[in-house]
Specification:
By secondary structure, this protein is an alpha+beta fold. It contains three helices and two strands; from the N terminus they run αβααβ. A two-stranded parallel sheet has the order 1-2.
Length: 112
């Protein structure tokens, strides 16, 4: 069985750079005001979001090749992404996952 080409492990560099610049300005302002401790816990920390968690505008294939074909992109962020964004994290890339997330070995028909 061959692999299906799919861009489920998508990059999010443009938005990530935009968020990073915003975080840099917020951190500088907080430093000047002496309020660094008031910044969110994950302020400016880059993260990877697994392919089984919805991220607005991105594919969520759950490692299943048939999910690539429909091309459906999430209309909103899943709860983990919402919470991490609220905590100041910066999603930079989508991570691969095992088919239906039912294995500890990340091997699927999309990426191998």
């Amino acid at each position: 069985i061959g692999r299906v080409l799919c861009l489920s492990a998508e990059e999010n560099f443009e938005q990530a750079f935009e968020l990073a610049r915003k975080c840099d300005k917020e951190r500088e302002n907080a430093r000047n005001e002496g309020t660094l401790e008031d910044l969110p816990l994950f302020h400016g920390v880059p993260i990877s979001v697994k392919d089984l968690i919805n991220q607005k505008g991105k594919l969520s294939t759950i490692g299943c090749a048939f999910k690539c074909a429909d091309g459906h992109r999430a209309e909103e962020d899943g709860l983990p992404v919402k919470l991490l964004l609220k905590a100041g994290a910066i999603p930079i890339v989508r991570g691969n996952c095992p088919q239906t997330a039912l294995s500890i070995d990340t091997n699927n028909l999309i990426f191998g």
